[in-house]
Automatic annotation (TrEMBL), chain A:
It comes from Actinotalea fermentans. One of its GO terms (cellular component) is plasma membrane. The keyword Coiled coil does not apply. It holds the Pfam family FtsX. Keywords: Cell membrane, Membrane, Transmembrane, Transmembrane helix. It is a multi-pass membrane protein. This is Permease. The lineage of its organism: Bacteria, Bacillati, Actinomycetota, Actinomycetes, Micrococcales.
From TrEMBL, chain B:
One of its GO terms (cellular component) is plasma membrane. PANTHER family: ABC TRANSPORTER RELATED, IMPORT ATP-BINDING PROTEIN. CDD domains: ABC_MJ0796_LolCDE_FtsE. Transmembrane segments: none annotated. The keyword Transferase does not apply. Residues 26-248 form the ABC transporter domain. It comes from Actinotalea fermentans. Keywords: ATP-binding, Nucleotide-binding, Transport. This is ABC transporter ATP-binding protein. InterPro entries: AAA+_ATPase, ABC_transporter-like_ATP-bd, ABC_transporter-like_CS, ABC_transpr_LolD-like, MacB-like_ATP-bd, P-loop_NTPase.
Amino acid sequence: MKAVLALAPRLQRSGGSLTTALAVVAFAVTTAMGLSVLGGLLGFIDRADRVPEGLDSHGVSAHENAELYVILATIAVVLLVVPLVSLAGAAARMGVARRDARLATLRLLGVTAREVRVVTAVETAAQGLAGAVLGIAGYGLLMPVWTRISFQGRPFDAGELWVGFAGIGGALVVVPLVAAASALVSLRRVVVSPLGVARRQTPPALSWLRTLGLLAAVGAFGLVVGAAGGMPQMIAVALLVGLLGTVFATLNLVGPWIVGVVGRVMAAAARTPATLLAARRLTDDPRAAWRVVGGLGMAAFVAGCLSVLPMFETTGEDPAADVITRDIVTGGVLTLAIAFAVAAVSAGIMQASSVLDRKREYALQRLAGAPVELFDAARRREVLAPLLLVTGTSSGVALLLVVLVIGTSGVTNVSGLALVLGFLAGGVALMLAATESSRPLLRSVLRETVVRAD
Amino acid sequence: MSLATADPFRPPVPTTVAHPAPQVRLAARGLVKRFGATVALDGVDLDLADGESLAVMGPSGSGKSTLLHCLAGILAPDQGGVALRGRDVSSGSDRERSLLRRRHYGFVFQFGQLLSELPAVENVALPAMLLGTSRREATERARQWLASLGLAGMEGRRPGELSGGQAQRVAVARALITGPDVVFADEPTGALDQATGADVMRVLTEATRAAGASLVVVTHDESVAAWCSRRLVIVDGREVRGPLAGAR
Ligand SMILES: Nc1ncnc2c1ncn2[C@@H]1O[C@H](COP(=O)(O)OP(=O)(O)O)[C@@H](O)[C@H]1O
Ligand SMILES: [Mg+2]
C-alpha cells in the first residue's frame, strides 16, 4: 500500500498538469457558484425570520411574502444542484480517464483494486480541495456582483449573503467528498477487470426503459397538482418542489438515451467523415456526450419553467405585489444565467479533456494527412446535434409541467415563449463558444510531430 | 488481369507480372533538419524506385523518424528537397503538404492511429471518404481490403477489440485504400511480438507491392528490415555505407 501511495505523484503527473488544472477550475466554479446560491437562500431565510408576523396597513402579510421568497429560492437551488454536481462529477471523471490506461497497467502488475481506489480517491479529493479553496475565494470576489442585485426593494448586503464559517467549512469537506465519490464511480470500469480498459468494446445501447422514470415523475407531478387543493399548503408545496427535482433528475437518465438514439440515426444517415465520426462518438459514450450537453439541457428545463415569468406583469396598482413580480423575474433570470454559465464551463472542460484523451489518435491522423477541419467539424456536430434535441426535449417537458400547474395560458403567452426561445438561443450560442475554446488546444496537440510510444 | 490496368482502389489479385523498368518515384537530396541545437538530419540523399521497399535503419535517436517525416511532407526540411515523380513536394504550405499526404501517401505507425470510436471498416474507409469517395463506395472498398488482408468478419470490431497484429493489418488496409504512391511505416511492428511482427511485415510488404506502391519502413530491427528489398542505415543524421552498415 505504501509503495502505491508513493506512486501517486507519478500518476498525477502522467494525468497531465493541464487536466489537473482544468479539474481544479471546474471544482472552483462549482464551489463559487454553489456557495453563492446557498448564500442567496440563507439571505432570504434570514430576511423572512426578521419580518414580524401580522398584517401591514394594506392588509398584506409581509411575513407570508417573505416565506414565498424562501420557497422560490429553494426551487432555484433545486434546479441548480444537478448542474453543479454534474460539473463536479465531470471534473472528477476527467482526471480518472486520463489515468485509466496507467491504472489498468498497475492492475496488471498486481496492484490490488483497493489500492488503486485509494490512490484515485486521495488524488481527486486533493484536486477537489484545491478547487474548493479557489472557489471560496471566487465566492468572495463575486460578492460585489450579487450585492448589486435588488430583492424585496433593496440589495442584499454581504452579511446577508455570507454562508458562515459552517458553510465555508462545509464546502471544504463536501467538494472533496463529491470529487472522490465521482472518481470512484468512474473507476469501477478499471477495477472490475484489469483488462476492462485495454479492451474497449462497443457498449450496448441504453434501454428505452430509462424514459419510464421521466414519464412516472411527470405523471406524479400532474397527480399532485390535481390533488393539491385538498392538501395542507406546505405539504403540497414540498411535494411539488420534491417532484420538480425528481423530474429534473430523471432528465439525467433520459438524456443519455436520447443522445444514443440521435447518434444511431446520425450514423445511419452520415455521408461525410465528420458526421460519421461525430455520430460514432455519440453512440460510443452517450453518457459522456450528455455530460457535455446535459448542463444546457438542464438549463433549458429551467428556461421552460420560467416561461411563466411574463405572466407576472407589474400592474402599478399594488406596489408590494409589483416588487414581488419584478423579483421573481430577476430571480428566474439569475437562476438561468447561473445554469447557463455552469453548463458552458462543463462543456468547455469536457471538450478539452476529450481532446487530451485522444491526443495520440488525433496527432497520428494529422500526420497521415487528415485535415484539422475534420476534427473541428466533428466536434461541432457532436455537440450541436444532441444539444438542439436535448434542449428541445427539456424545455418541452418543462412547458408540460407549466401547463399542468397553471393551464395552457402558461404556454399560449407569446412573450413567455419568446423569452424561452431567446434564452435557449443564447444558451446554445454560449455552449458552442465554450466548445470552440478547445480549438487552440486541438491545434497545439496536432502540432506535435513527435508522437512517442510513451 | 495485369497490375498496370488494375483498379488501384481494389485489392489486387496476386499475379506474377513483369514490371516495367523501375523509375525513381521518390527522390531526396541533401536533407538537413535541425531542432534547436540538435541536428537530426545532416545531409541525406535517397532514391526510391517504383515498387521498391526500403528499410531505414539505425540506432534510437539517429534521425530515422525525422527522415520519414521529411520524405512524407510532415516536416519541411531546413535544407534540401524531396520530389515525388519529379515534382518538388517539400516546400509547399502546411495545407498543401497535408493534401499531398492524403492523396499520394499511406501511413502505418507503431500503434494508436486508428480512431477508437470507429469500427475497423470505417477506420479503413475514412481516408477514401476524406478524398471525396462516397460512403457506400468507400465502405465497400474497405470491406474488400479487410477481407484480402485476412480480416473478413472483423469489419464491425473497434480498435479496442482487435489484437495488436489485427490492428496493424487494419492500419495497412487504411494506408492502401486510397491507392497511394508510397507507404511510410514507422516501427510498424514496434509494439508486437516477434511472430506477430513477422506476420504484419509479410502482409505489409506483399500488399504494398501488389498495390504497386513503394514502401519506406523505419525500424531498428534486423528481422523487420529483412522483409525489404534494400536498406539505408543512418547514424547521427547521416547515411552510413559499407560493411559496418549492417552491424548494429
Ligand atoms: N520535434 C522535435 N523537437 C526536438 N527534437 C527532436 C524532435 N524530433 C526529433 N528530435 C530529435 O532529433 C533526433 C532524431 O530523432 P528521431 O528522428 O525521432 O530519431 P529516431 O526515429 O531514429 O529514433 C533526436 O535527437 C531527437 O531527440
Ligand atoms: Mg523514431
